[in-house]
Design brief:
The complex is a heterodimer of chains A (113) and B (110). Chain A has no helices and 11 strands. Chain A is mainly beta and 113 residues long. In chain A, the strands form 2 sheets. In chain A, strands 2, 4, 5, 6, 9, 10 and 11 form a 7-stranded mixed sheet that branches. Chain A has a 4-stranded antiparallel sheet with strand order 1-3-8-7, with no helix packed on it. The N and C termini of chain A lie far apart (33 Å). Classes of the chains: A mainly beta (113), B mainly beta (110). Chains A and B meet through β10 of A and β4, β5 and β9 of B.
Chain lengths: 113, 110
């Protein structure tokens, strides 16, 4: 099984919907990350969790709500999104927040109508 | 403000060509620089560079860092169609923040 998995792989939602993205890592890592990748823009770091504690929140709107119930799972809860939130959402993990190498999941392609 | 500039933005070459991808950066309290390859979805790790002037090699790929001039290059020799991807440069700061460049899109023609 691949190290970092994400579900769903594709998601279409309306602006009034509530949905959640799930990330699971099987690498025994202690740090997990959410990134947003919009078309023709660099990867943008959204949230960082280290040992299940949120350590970084890069000015992300409150319509994105992360949750890290344990070191293997990370969720991104979505509600009342806007069309400009359509993007590829990538989850990553690393051995620790201080360790450089991050391993990425395949991403969830989100389309907000 | 932290900044990462990759060039060229895109590149089309023929199989067998050698390419050089550039990354210049200005970040607070630089710690290291990573290169990733992104094909369909997930970026995959290529190299981590921390010291100037020491080349890292992996098969046909190699990379080097110049901390004085604040840039790094990624070389790919004898390119193959499987090298077609977006190559991302990502400096990392002392505050453990990784900043990604916009990437260079490489297309290798058969």
């Amino acid at each position: 099984e691949t190290g970092v998995t994400q579900t769903p792989r594709h998601l279409v939602m309306g602006m009034t919907n509530k949905k959640s993205l799930k990330c699971e890592q099987h690498l025994g890592h202690n740090a997990m990350y959410w990134y947003k990748q919009s078309a023709k823009k660099p990867l943008e770091l959204m949230f960082v969790y280290s040992l299940e504690e949120r350590v970084e929140n890069n000015s992300v709107p409150s319509r994105f709500s992360p949750e890290c119930p344990n070191s293997s799972h990370l969720f991104l809860h979505l509600h009342t999104l806007q069309p400009e939130d359509s993007a590829l959402y990538l989850c990553a993990s690393s051995q620790a927040r201080t360790i450089e190498t991050q391993y990425f999941g395949p991403g969830t392609r989100l389309l907000v109508l | 403000e932290d900044k990462v500039v990759q060039s060229p933005l895109s590149l089309v070459v023929h199989e067998g060509d050698t390419v050089t991808l550039n990354c210049s950066y200005e970040v607070t309290n630089f710690r290291s620089l990573l290169w990733y390859k992104q094909e369909k979805k997930a970026p995959t790790f290529l190299f981590m560079l921390t010291s100037s002037g020491i080349e890292k090699k992996s098969g046909r790929l190699s990379s080097i860092l110049d901390k004085k001039e604040l840039f790094s290059i990624l070389n790919i020799t004898a390119t193959q169609t499987g090298d077609s991807a977006v190559y991302l440069c990502a400096p990392r700061t002392g505050g453990f923040k990784t900043i990604f460049g916009a990437g260079t899109r490489l297309f290798v023609k058969a």
